[in-house]
Amino acid sequence: MRYAHTVQAVRDAEGALMARLPEGALMQRAAAGLAVVGARVLGRVYGRRVAVVAGSGSNGGDALYAGARLARRGAGVTAVLLAPERAHAAGLRALLDAGGRAVGAAEGAAVVARADLVYDGIVGIGGKGGLRAEAAELMRAARAGGGAVVAVDLPSGVDADTGEVAGEAVRADVTVTFGTYKPGLLIDPAAELAGAVTLVGIGLELGAPEVEALQHADLAGLLPRPSGESDKYRRGVVGVVAGSDRYPGAAVLAVSGALRGGAGAVRYVGGGGPAVLARHPETLVSSGSPHEAGRVQAWVVGPGLGDDARARTAVAEVLAADVPVLVDADGLRLMSRDAVRARTAATVLTPHAGEAAALLGRAREEVEASRLTAVRDLAELFGATVLLKGSTTLVAAPDPAVPVRVNPTGTAWLATAGSGDVLSGLTGSLLAARLPARDAASAAGYLHGLAARLTEGPLAAMDVAESIPEAWRNVCGG
Ligand SMILES: NC(=O)C1=CN([C@@H]2O[C@H](COP(=O)(O)OP(=O)(O)OC[C@H]3O[C@@H](n4cnc5c(N)ncnc54)[C@H](OP(=O)(O)O)[C@@H]3O)[C@@H](O)[C@H]2O)[C@@H](O)CC1
Ligand SMILES: Nc1ncnc2c1ncn2[C@@H]1O[C@H](COP(=O)(O)OP(=O)(O)O)[C@@H](O)[C@H]1O
Ligand SMILES: [K+]
């Protein structure tokens, strides 16, 4: 698991640790890690040009000390001081003692433009809002110059706690973060600015994270494995209520995801039966209403369902069932909030940003800019587990004390019609296999994103479904 903590949690842990360590020890740990990564990015240190853009806080201190370490190894290091009179005094002294030099911001543009490596030590977890004009201009010059930009702790200008970006922010090639990931390094739009993120341990003892990201090993522990005693009913049956005359393809895609999620059988309910059977003859198809379809251990309702009276009744019926239910697409428009809140079995909602915006009464842009807030608000509003799709997929539990899961897999090629239907089916299948809602949703998001990456390039939604078994083997080793 990869964990991300809030600024407050980092500050608390830092305070406790600093009380036990000699002054400056933590900053030296940070600077040492920063210098190692800088040297790796440079390849050869001797004779290379390094610029250290330093603000007034400890973030600038880290960068100045790292610059001093590279200067001692023969790099030509110049600090560009945004606030010369308030620069980190000991860090600046160390750099000058190591043979580096310092200039003010006015001379900085030429320095950063010529550098092979630029450290962004403008602001770290103490930052508020976007970059100020002078810093923004300098970092534009750095990018235009073509040197590698290494952000210290996080790209300056992004919000560490939420991933929001108000105004301009640094676009880094690499970010070296200290002690723990910050939510903003994992959640877009900020995550996209962080480049490759390296975590440098500095010994912080941290409590519960705000955000966490599954890794391969976590998936292997979560995914169901059939045993000798398994039969199709014990493995779980998932019911899929999807598709309509207008969108029969959604039924096929949702079923294709469900068939590859480890459930023992898939029941399909709706008007898309012939299309489903043509593609997936193993599906148990019925055309009546959900309660006539036979028993299931979880329901998926909504993809391509349309919004006529029959669809509305099907959604209400499924929500009244005492098994986990996933609601997607048209189902999200047809469901009643009270019906969702009244449920005792788990409910998973899987909106994209537009659907989330409609449910929250906000603008879509607001949801995309503040994804963490949006997913938490939705989970609380509906008392449900919410998987918010998009450039960063997030999964929130109804209990705000539970960390939000951020999906580390995926590719922008997934933004293609029908790929969400596959995800719904896959998630439903994991619910039927009795994974808890948050695990089912986050494991499905992970596999779905990995499957998409395995197709390497332009993809159709069915390609994602067909790559799920390979993604599964990838994480579980067969
Ligand atoms: N925690 C840990 O365990 C460890 C933390 N460490 C390091 O310390 C960093 C935190 O340092 P910090 O607290 O000094 O704050 P920091 O991020 O340098 O910024 C504060 C200064 O920035 C300014 N400023 C604010 N907004 C701005 C903006 N938009 N644009 C421009 N400037 C802006 C504001 O000054 P102002 O001009 O507003 O008076 C203020 O003085 C952390 O990220 C990590 O790198 C490591 O050394 C090792 C252990
Ligand atoms: N920019 C993006 N980067 C990565 N994944 C994305 C991006 N945009 C959308 N996705 C993913 O693509 C899928 C699209 O689902 P959805 O919006 O429901 O589309 P549809 O309704 O056509 O199936 C989701 O898994 C979502 O997370
Ligand atoms: K920074």
Automatic annotation (TrEMBL):
<dbReference type="InterPro" id="IPR000631">
    <property type="entry name" value="CARKD"/>
</dbReference>
<keyword id="KW-0520">NAD</keyword>
<feature type="binding site">
    <location>
        <position position="352"/>
    </location>
    <ligand>
        <name>(6S)-NADPHX</name>
    </ligand>
</feature>
<feature type="binding site">
    <location>
        <position position="156"/>
    </location>
    <ligand>
        <name>K(+)</name>
    </ligand>
</feature>
<feature type="binding site">
    <location>
        <begin position="389"/>
        <end position="393"/>
    </location>
    <ligand>
        <name>AMP</name>
    </ligand>
</feature>
<comment type="subunit">
    <text>Homotetramer.</text>
</comment>
<feature type="binding site">
    <location>
        <position position="59"/>
    </location>
    <ligand>
        <name>K(+)</name>
    </ligand>
</feature>
<dbReference type="InterPro" id="IPR029056">
    <property type="entry name" value="Ribokinase-like"/>
</dbReference>
<keyword id="KW-0547">Nucleotide-binding</keyword>
<dbReference type="InterPro" id="IPR004443">
    <property type="entry name" value="YjeF_N_dom"/>
</dbReference>
<keyword id="KW-0479">Metal-binding</keyword>
<feature type="domain" description="YjeF C-terminal">
    <location>
        <begin position="215"/>
        <end position="475"/>
    </location>
</feature>
<comment type="similarity">
    <text>Belongs to the NnrD/CARKD family.</text>
</comment>
<keyword id="KW-0067">ATP-binding</keyword>
<feature type="binding site">
    <location>
        <position position="120"/>
    </location>
    <ligand>
        <name>K(+)</name>
    </ligand>
</feature>
<feature type="domain" description="YjeF N-terminal">
    <location>
        <begin position="10"/>
        <end position="210"/>
    </location>
</feature>
<comment type="function">
    <text>Catalyzes the dehydration of the S-form of NAD(P)HX at the expense of ADP, which is converted to AMP. Together with NAD(P)HX epimerase, which catalyzes the epimerization of the S- and R-forms, the enzyme allows the repair of both epimers of NAD(P)HX, a damaged form of NAD(P)H that is a result of enzymatic or heat-dependent hydration.</text>
</comment>
<comment type="similarity">
    <text>In the C-terminal section; belongs to the NnrD/CARKD family.</text>
</comment>
<feature type="binding site">
    <location>
        <begin position="58"/>
        <end position="62"/>
    </location>
    <ligand>
        <name>(6S)-NADPHX</name>
    </ligand>
</feature>
<comment type="function">
    <text>Catalyzes the epimerization of the S- and R-forms of NAD(P)HX, a damaged form of NAD(P)H that is a result of enzymatic or heat-dependent hydration. This is a prerequisite for the S-specific NAD(P)H-hydrate dehydratase to allow the repair of both epimers of NAD(P)HX.</text>
</comment>
<feature type="binding site">
    <location>
        <position position="304"/>
    </location>
    <ligand>
        <name>(6S)-NADPHX</name>
    </ligand>
</feature>
<keyword id="KW-0456">Lyase</keyword>
<keyword id="KW-0511">Multifunctional enzyme</keyword>
<keyword id="KW-0630">Potassium</keyword>
<dbReference type="InterPro" id="IPR036652">
    <property type="entry name" value="YjeF_N_dom_sf"/>
</dbReference>
<feature type="binding site">
    <location>
        <position position="421"/>
    </location>
    <ligand>
        <name>(6S)-NADPHX</name>
    </ligand>
</feature>
<dbReference type="InterPro" id="IPR030677">
    <property type="entry name" value="Nnr"/>
</dbReference>
<feature type="binding site">
    <location>
        <position position="153"/>
    </location>
    <ligand>
        <name>(6S)-NADPHX</name>
    </ligand>
</feature>
<feature type="binding site">
    <location>
        <position position="420"/>
    </location>
    <ligand>
        <name>AMP</name>
    </ligand>
</feature>
<dbReference type="Pfam" id="PF03853">
    <property type="entry name" value="YjeF_N"/>
</dbReference>
<protein>
    <recommendedName>
        <fullName>Bifunctional NAD(P)H-hydrate repair enzyme</fullName>
        <ecNumber>4.2.1.136</ecNumber>
        <ecNumber>5.1.99.6</ecNumber>
    </recommendedName>
</protein>
<dbReference type="Pfam" id="PF01256">
    <property type="entry name" value="Carb_kinase"/>
</dbReference>
<feature type="binding site">
    <location>
        <begin position="124"/>
        <end position="130"/>
    </location>
    <ligand>
        <name>(6S)-NADPHX</name>
    </ligand>
</feature>
<feature type="binding site">
    <location>
        <position position="250"/>
    </location>
    <ligand>
        <name>(6S)-NADPHX</name>
    </ligand>
</feature>
<keyword id="KW-0413">Isomerase</keyword>
<dbReference type="InterPro" id="IPR017953">
    <property type="entry name" value="Carbohydrate_kinase_pred_CS"/>
</dbReference>
<keyword id="KW-0521">NADP</keyword>
